[in-house]
Write a structure and sequence with these properties.
The complex is a heterodimer.
Chain A lengths: L1 H26 L4 H4 L4 E3 L2 E26 L17 E27 L2 E6 L3 H26 L2
Antiparallel strand pairs in A: 1-2, 2-3, 3-4
Chain B lengths: L7 E7 L3 E3 L2 E13 L3 E15 L2 E6 L3 H31 L1
Classes of the chains: A alpha+beta, B alpha+beta.
Chain lengths: ~150, ~100
Amino acid sequence: MEESFDHIAAAAAKSQEQATRLFERLMKVAQPESVYSEPVTSGELTVITASEVTTGLGFGYGIGGGTGTFPASQEEGKEPDTEPKKEGQSSGSGGGGGGGGGSMARPVAVITISSQGVEIEPVVDVTKLGLALFVTAGSMLLMFSRMWRMSHR
Amino acid sequence: MDQSKPVFEWQNRSGRPITASGFTVTPQSQALVSRWPHFGFVWNRPAAVVVERLGQTQRIPVYDLTRILQWGLLAISAVCWIGFLLLWRQRSKEMH
């Protein structure tokens, strides 16, 4: 039983090392290269895109094991034997782990470099604004309906 | 996991300078890094670009217009709801 537990513990330690290495690679997202693209040049115009990047990672693992003794068994309906029964030992061990992660990127602006200067043009996400406007309008409608009811009491 | 590093950390970094059309542009980013024993996330956003030409340097911030408008709409909604709650309270006091 100890051998199997050691095997599980070794596997868990190896998984933890792999997760830690992956976690350190995640930290590399905090670099400007993740946010700014490579410049694209066309004629006298150079364009660089700027994005917002969000990345998350989580993992967990657990191992366990134990030993126990089970009492001497007695069959139902039978009188207990006079001879003492031998107690047995049981043991068990197990381990498990899991992890997950996600990443999201969204364009924020476009940087244009030309002979006339450097310009930063924001990128507007119409879908997100539409959703925010929808939620705002819904809450305002709810509020106005309550005000109308309040005024007509 | 390095336990000596803070749980939350702001990192301001400058990227590789890019030269084009006589301008040298250095991108800058700002990242919020969070480290927990079994969880971590990174939020990285463009902060500004530093433009250099003929010895003159100018820092131009990068604004996230979508996020600003989202927060603006949220603020309008919150202000309206606060006003409504204050009015509700006043009406309740008048009625009682």
